[in-house]
Design brief:
With 375 residues, the chain is α/β, with parallel strands linked by helices. 38% of the residues lie in helices and 15% in strands. The protein contains 13 helices and 13 strands. A 7-stranded mixed sheet has the order 2-8-7-6-5-3-4, sandwiched between helices. α3 packs across α10, α4 crosses α9 and α11 runs parallel beside α13. The longest helix is centred in the last third of the chain and has 18 residues. The chain is globular, with a radius of gyration of 20 Å.
């Protein structure tokens, strides 16, 4: 009998497979197709012949832990203990899975805000706990009244994703104040803050849970070098948590992966000495603006994109079919792959919205836009 009877193949796999079968331009799955920074590839080439190929310590390569602590301090003015409060993970998804399975027990409840990334629910179910799906407002702002009403004495964790995949929204000061009031009422509730796109925000500055003094002692914060440095295949992430939570998380981590890719950790540690997070933001803002400009003459209505490398668009003026069927037809008839937003909802809520990934080179964006503007 399946432990996850209602979970099948992810929509990302399905759409990428269809895109390959129909030779479509793949703007569905969130991976960049442009070259990695030459400074990073040069570091990797140099390290290949050095003695960096064996296990690192379980928590991570010690110089990298120091660099993460320094980056966190520079970005958020938070001082963290690199030995006790940081864990390098095999991608953010492994960090999320590890944290949930370490801290959630049977019959606990976990608040998940929809639309939500698809990796949150499975570990909750595997813990024999109960995911409580609460929809955001239709403009993708949190409805804090509904969220508070969904909380109870059984609620052990709330998961936020900021900047938000798939919508590109970011949380504001008032959102954190509302969140803090809820957690004040439930002293045993933890916060899992998925911030893998933290360095990809645009007009407004990203507010991190690292900035919130009232939250940091009960929060697990998830970050991703794969997303930040467009090296998604390296699967290198990290989480930050107070020592009492980290002790429990490491108990699971040591039997899940034990330690993470050694050469990649060493390479990122060296790369952090030369890379600027401001350059990452600037590059993606230029890509967002370029892609939005290319679609200006289309019949798609573009939603605001405050962060991430995803653009949500409405096709309501083009078709009244379901977003899943529209995305399939977009591939088979027009040669462009996107992701239907309804698949991010527990109840399949369909608002005629789809998600494009603009983390692509300009030639790819131009070719895709030409096809989209012809619809």
């Amino acid at each position: 009998m399946s432990k996850l009877p209602n979970i099948g193949t992810s929509i990302f796999t399905i759409m990428s497979k269809m895109a390959a079968e129909h030779n479509a331009i793949n703007l569905s799955q969130g991976f960049p197709n442009f070259p990695v920074d030459k400074r990073l590839t040069d570091i990797i080439a140099k390290l290949a012949s050095e003695n960096v190929h064996q296990y690192t310590p379980m928590s991570g390569y010690p110089p990298l832990l120091l660099k993460i602590a320094k980056l966190t301090n520079q970005s958020y003015s938070r001082v963290i203990d690199p030995e006790k409060e940081i864990l390098v993970t095999a991608g953010a998804t492994q960090g999320i899975f590890t944290a949930i399975t370490a801290l959630i027990k049977a019959d606990d409840e976990v608040i998940i805000l929809d639309p939500s990334y698809d990796c949150y629910e499975a570990p909750v179910l595997l813990c024999n706990a109960k995911p409580i799906r609460v929809a955001l407002n239709d403009d993708y702002t949190p409805n804090w009244e509904n969220i508070e009403n969904a909380c109870s004495s059984k609620t052990k964790m709330i998961i936020i994703n900021n900047p938000h995949n798939p919508t590109g929204k970011i949380l504001k000061q008032a959102d954190f104040e509302a969140l803090e009031k809820i957690l004040d009422k439930y002293p045993n509730m933890l916060l899992l803050s998925d911030e893998v796109y933290e360095y990809i925000t645009f007009e407004e500055k990203h507010i991190s849970t690292n900035n919130r003094e009232k939250l940091i002692n009960r929060s697990i914060i998830i970050s991703s070098f794969g997303k930040s440095f467009h090296i998604t295949g390296w699967k290198i992430g990290y989480l930050i948590a107070p020592e009492n939570l980290m002790i429990e998380i490491k108990k699971v981590h040591q039997f899940l992966v034990f330690s993470v890719n050694s050469i990649c950790q060493v390479a990122i540690s060296e790369y952090l000495e030369v890379v600027s997070t401001d350059d990452i933001k600037k590059m993606y803002q230029e890509k967002r603006d370029y892609f939005r400009g290319l679609l200006h003459g289309s019949r798609f209505k573009l939603m605001p994109c405050e962060g991430t490398y995803f653009q949500v668009a409405s096709f309501a003026e083009i078709s009244n079919e379901s977003d899943i069927n529209f995305c399939k037809r977009l591939i088979t008839e027009h040669g462009v792959a996107a992701i239907p937003i309804s698949t991010f909802y527990g109840d399949g809520k369909d608002l005629s919205l789809i998600r494009f990934c603009f983390a692509k080179d300009n030639a790819t964006l131009e070719a895709a836009a030409k096809r989209l503007c012809s619809i």
